[in-house]
Amino acid sequence: MNQMNTDIIIVGGGLAGMSLALQLLNRDASYAITIIEKNTFPVPDTTAKVGESTVEIGAHYFSHVLGLQSHFEEKHLRKYGLRLFFGKGQDDFSGYDELGVSELFGIPAYQIERGTLENHLYTLLKDRGVVFLDAAVPGNISLGDKHHRVTCQRGDEEITITGRWLVDAAGRQALLRNKLDLQTETGHQGNAVFFRINKRVIIDEWCDNEQWQNRVCEPGKRWLSTNHLMGPGYWVWVIPLASGATSFGIVMDDKALADSGITTFEDTVSWLSKEHPLCAAAIEGADLLDFKVMKGYSYGCKKMFCDSGWAMTGEAGAFSDPFYSPGSDFIALNNTFVTHLIERDRKGQDIRFEAALFHKFYDSFFENTLSIYKDQYGGFGDRKMMSVKLVWDYTYYWGVFALLFFTDTIGDLDTMRKITPNLLKTQKLNKKMQTMLRQRAERRLVLPAKGSFMDQFLVPCLSELNDVLKNPDIDVEQALEKNITIMQKIVPYFEDMLSDEPVNQIDEEEQAILGAYRLKVLA
Description:
Helices cover 41% and strands 20% of the residues. By secondary structure, the protein is α/β, with parallel strands linked by helices.
């Protein structure tokens, strides 16, 4: 039996685990880190993992915190925003209603080729002295007080690694969560079918209407968006990858999944042929790279970080939902908390208070994120509800979460204490909005598609909130105060928009939606 000793054991050499290792080494190059990974490097560029799309926090983390900006610009696709289409069974795609941006707000996000990124991280970390035990299966885990032991099997060889810190980054294997019985139910019922094909799907080619093409300032760029086909209880993602492959997913609540009858790839294509024939036609003739069905994907965790020297990151801890692509955001958040704890522990500080407080912060972020999905899927085919929802959710995300992360305030306990009363105000406003959205979603409304374009770039508050994040010298307390004022203005306005009314008054609803995107009250 081989025995090794290290400072930090990371079980899981995927995106979460390797990102944490790089973040730690960027802060202190002297850490001794050992990563245990069941796969063998290099992995295929188009690897069978969900999580290809980033949003602002994740993109900022990879580009600026980890220093990977040039890699992302050279090897991955710049994302052209989030784009939603509402319609069913139509052959003319310009007849779908569209919710998205005519031009980008400015902070870059990316469609990432997971295998390409993970191979790049592997090379970087090997060059910086990280010990990789790939093709190794973790077995017995023994936890102690700043003294942990993991035994793994690597071919015919059994290896035991001891370390002061142990981080579970092994995804849904849930090594620590299962060992310590820490899983909790979220109350959110979500199911996903996802697959990749070896074909580039260009959604711009689904319509040759010149007016439709020219809705965006750079015609022909829609395919670079995270495109969604929306319906009651479901959404379909279409994500391009730099390799030329395309990732698809169909995410459903329990009712939509039961109605769909999907269990196989053939079922999936049959369902798409009925609901979204243009999408089904785009898949035709392509080779299937992978296919998976995942039921009940959402779960929580009672404890993410422990002062005795263990932690969880990525999907090893908790997972809410894939809508809005928050996976890399939570990797960024968890890894930053873990990095702060390990740094303070190395300095000899007592981290009991910080470990408890960071979990409390994490839990608050997770619960607020979960609230934007829970019991709302029924309204995903309702363009009016979703036009309100996206503006609010962006406002809350950029105005609170992104603000705290971009300024590294989440690790500054003194500032977090000062702004806690204002954070509680934002949570109260978010709770009110999500409650109204849930009430509307219960009706599972589908308004007849009219080929309208709801341009989020026209919403003044979104431009303002995004611009604030570009300032390297943000005064977080002042910015949060200003953002709360914006939120307080728009909540009552959106309350009026979501109020009950005859659903056959389409013209009036259309005007209300489009009007909301121009009113000064949103500024």
